[in-house]
Design brief:
CATH class: Alpha Beta
Oligomer: single chain
Largest sheet: 6 strands, parallel
Mean pLDDT: 97
Radius of gyration: 19 Å
CATH topology: TIM Barrel
Number of domains: 1
Structural class: alpha/beta
Strand content: 5-15%
Shape: globular
Helix content: 40-55%
Low-confidence stretches: none
CATH architecture: Alpha-Beta Barrel
Bound molecules: 5'-deoxyadenosine, FE2/S2 (inorganic) cluster
Order of helices and strands: HHHEEHEHEHEHHEHEHHHEHHE
Amino acid sequence: MTDRLIDKLIKERSLSKEEYALLISERTLKAAERLKQAASEVRDEIYGHDIFVRGLIEISNICVNDCYYCGIRKSNASVERYRLKSSEIIDTADRGYELGFRTFVLQGGEDPAYNDEVLCDIVRKIKEMHPDSAVTLSMGERSRESYRKLHEAGADRYLLRHETASPEHYGKLHPEEMSFSNRMRSLKDLRDTGYQTGCGMMVGSPFQTERELAEDLKFIEEFKPDMCGIGPFIPHRATPFRNERPGSAELTLYLLSIIRLIHPPVLLPATTALGTILPDGREQGILYGANVVMPNLSPVRVRKKYELYDNKICTGEEAAECVDCLSARMKAIGFRIVTERGDIRL
Ligand code: 5AD
Ligand code: FES
């Protein structure tokens, strides 16, 4: 059964929603092995064993949104809030440049203090000092005009996970003020504006079944994102989803292989969330078809505060240089981190 679906996926890079759902619900160890093998082959053809690195800078944990799954949602009164100064963000990028990073990801909650003027200024300064680097923003939903200004200031890429491609499911993960249509509008605006655009979802979020995941896969097939971030849902103790079950590492890996086969050139990270639920999760992610890792470059003093889910790794003093740790981890499985922007190879 799954053999036929896998043949078709490899040949056509496309399945129907019903077929995606079956490929998930009927999965076996053997199917996972086949997908892993096929995904590795297509990844190797495009990227070889080069792994792209992105220096992640968590610039603010202040957020106007209240997503039920997220540890930095505005209703969580138990987080100590912080916001990095512009100068500190720029210094952090400088340090990253010295360490070999050529992509910086500025990620934060939807913090109104980072209005267009402030954020454009930061982007412009980083690009001025390091013109051979890419700047990626991951700052949530903004207006089309704001996306345009930031792109003009030099931002190259934007990550905005779609979270779920089902409007009903979206409504169960978010409060009423947030809308599926604005998420989709944002993603289309980003693409139209000229960004390399990333979407993605959590695996095993509450109320998600193989039907919702099939919708996600169809969405990815049609949208053809430049980047796609997927990681397991992990409950956070101070959110409405505190008692929900975490997502599975095994299913996350299975989906990484499928996404690689749907859209072979996609930049696919082995995420921190995957490394949090499985000690060698990021290595496994690469072995199942991922080709990107995102070491944490944030100042150590804020790392614990940017806790979207419980037990996030890389938050201690010992994690000061995640890049060395990840280099060693990649080397141990026969891959190597490269110093380049790491654009998509279409
Ligand atoms: N578990 C896993 N991932 C999460 N994210 C937010 N909260 C959680 C959680 N509890 C993901 C969302 C968001 C990204 C920055 O982190 O998908 O888009
Ligand atoms: Fe952060 Fe290993 S990558 S400590």
